[in-house]
Each structure stands twice: as C-alpha cells, then as structure tokens.
Write a structure and sequence with these properties.
The protein has helices at residues 2-23, 30-51, 58-72, 75-82. By secondary structure, the chain is mainly alpha-helical. It is elongated and about 45 Å long. The termini are far apart.
Length: 94
Amino acid sequence: MVLFSFFGSLMIAGVVAFLFEKWGWTHNGILPSVFIAWGAVLVLFFVRSLFGLSLGSPGLDAVIGSAAALVLIPTEYASKRRNKDTRDRPWRNR
C-alpha cells in the first residue's frame, strides 16, 4: 500500500508541475519543474514516513508540496544571475 501512495504522489507532482508550466505560473521548463516537484514530494513523503507529520492524505501532501516548491524555488532568476556579464563580478574572470 505504501508503494502505491509513493508512486501516486510522484504522478500527482508531475501533473501539478506540468499544469503550473502550462498556466504560466512558473517559467522553468517542464522537465526542471517536474524535478523540483518530485523533490518536494520526496521530502514530504519521507517526513510523513519517518515522523508521522502530514498535511492530510498523501495526495494532498503531493499537491501542496509540489505547488509550494514550484513557487518558492526561483530557477529562472538563478539562471539569469548565472548568465550575467562577468564585468559585474570581476572575481569570476579567473
């Protein structure tokens, strides 16, 4: 039974990530968004398994966790910061 809820949570996270990309709430790309959502679901699933803390059913944990991770992790801004000109950061000219 645990295996079904685990893989079901991953499926729900993938759907939430896909919908967030299609609706324009995130601009990471579909694959990075799915990986971010899966990571959040893994963390919540392990917290639920190890400590018994949850927000409700495993499906509700998956929806809330993946949505929160997609909103909180700004990968678009991180990639823009990484690709800035090296004149802004002279220590990167090495």
